[in-house]
User: Fold this.
Amino acid sequence: MPGGINLTRSQLEAVFEHAKRQQPEEACGILAGDPDGSVRRVFLMENAEHSSILYMMDSTEQFEVFDQMEKDGLELVAIFHSHPHSPAFPSARDLELAFYPESLYLIVSLMDDEPQYHAFRLARGQVAEAPLVILDDIKESLDEA
Ligand SMILES: [Zn+2]
Assistant:
């Protein structure tokens, strides 16, 4: 169970882009990766609610993503969603609908010019901020030692 999220800058940018494209609706998706929280793959998903104040992953798409993760040997690191008009903090509804206590939750707020983002663990009705590390992308040109 990851204790925090390690995201690369370009993975974070992909989440921001998805969030901006889905405005004014909330956007959502899954960050999959290693048990230490290092994200290997970002799944950009559909908000089945098509709402600006809540999100629900499409159940068929969610099944396909979980299936793909299993095939690729990836763990669920975090579920992310955006808040078009409110801060990067879980709503009462987010807490109520947090069905994965083993997952972390990344929330991106688009209410300011620059996206704000925070990671949380949502379990048993409690909100706890979780560590979120943004890593520089590894350059392809690095020589093998
Ligand atoms: Zn929310």
Notes: DSSP finds three helices and eight strands in the chain.
